[in-house]
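ok so for the tutorial part 2 we go from a plain amino acid sequence to predicted structure tokens. step 1 is just haveing the sequence, like this:
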Amino acid sequence: MWQDFRPKEIARDLRGLGEAGVEWIRAFLLWPDFMPSRETVDRAMISRLRAFLDLVEDSGLRLQLVLLVGHMSGENWTPPWLPDPSRLYEDPELLWAQELYVGTIVEVARGAPCLDAYGLTNEIDRLAGPAPSDVVSPWADRLYRLVKRLDPSRPVLLGDGAWYVLGEDSGFSPGTPQDVIAPHLYLSDEDPERLVAGHALAVATAKALAGGREVWLEEFGAAHSVFGEEQIAEWAGRVVEEVRLAGAERICWWCGLDFTTAGERPYVHHAFELSFGLLRADRSQRPVAHALRRAMDRPVPDLPEAGLLVPSHFLRRYPFVAADDRDLTTRTLRNAYAALRRLGYRVRVVLEEQVAADTTPSPLVVPSTRKLLAPTWGALEGLPGEVLYSYLHGGSFFQGAWISGARSFFGGEPRNRYAVPEPPPARLVAGEEAWDLPAAEDPFVGTPLLIDPREAEVLGTDESGRPLWLRVGRRNLLLYPLEAVAPTPEAVAAVYRRMLRPAT
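step 2 — the prediction. this is what the tokens look like for a chain of 504 residues:
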């Protein structure tokens, strides 16, 4: 757009977006276009930026301006004077150049009434590569403070994608200086209900990590390449309803319009990127535009709250702890989240360090969990509210649950054999009711916890009479990892409905 700047076409695009119900947009400043040398910000591009800001103002839309765009749509866009982007975070000369660029843009843009927020980057770790947090944070702090010094009233977002909410590590974290936590979500799943829950879970996790800051779903979308327009619209509408319930303040679809630039990079090699638009190339509205507007206009329902514990081991890296069970934890949390939504709860993610008697929701679900920090087990025992915990024995590491006080927590004596799996249960039987239990592919994952009850009350057994559902104080303990192995959330909700008092 910046090299081939056509104001009349841009005005029509903005008008079309407004007619589709769009309220705010993200606009990218392609770094190589604006900074042809390390010492120069292109004056012609600055003039075009001023003209663009006027066009946005005339359209009535609100704007988030994204500054350091060196990655977009499956390609890195590196200024010609930047031979090694991995040096962006630490090289003094490159830091100076970034400050020159960012400062120049902010001084131009800050007077625009349409401007709502700045994005420092778009997924800069795709350009610079991952780096340790002690490298990323000083870089972000430096640019964040520069923007806030020049324009203190507007929020600054990192544009990092906040992928730590998915258990990924790029060096960015909630502690990196920023005013808004803003995930970028492109997820998939075998189950459509779990897929929608995955988006809401990510936003709810961001909300728990935000420390009172706003959470925006800064980017999600779908290419209309081989997928049905009505199918995308149905999915997108459900996602928006669920992420708003989870706490998203703003939501932005990628992207506004389809492109007709099939012969240009990056679309020549990423052809599916041509068809992400809310609007088609002729500016006609796709069904997804109507679905998003309807979902945004619906009131967020007032529902009873349930807590969902997200383990610290999922979000952080500890010494000599493999991350090989992250996919299993993801499936577990999505199944649990979707099951609680089926029962009519609004789900609030609770981090381990947030488990406290006076703030933790009741019920609190701790699904298919093996690895918790040592103090967390005692904190769960001390909660006055209801807790539903389900046991996960293990995957590649055969040590079982990482707990030292199992006798107290489970109200009985563990009887599992060391370092070998136990026969899995096929059914959960509670009085006159029974539920078939899905099998695990890995025998260690499917290993139940065998308990000889003492203080625990046995509320359910497996088909052979082994205790499988225990009650200790306010804790319901399911001794099998239902959420980790269930093929659908429906199978989880059926058991939760019996173990929890339904919200509806």
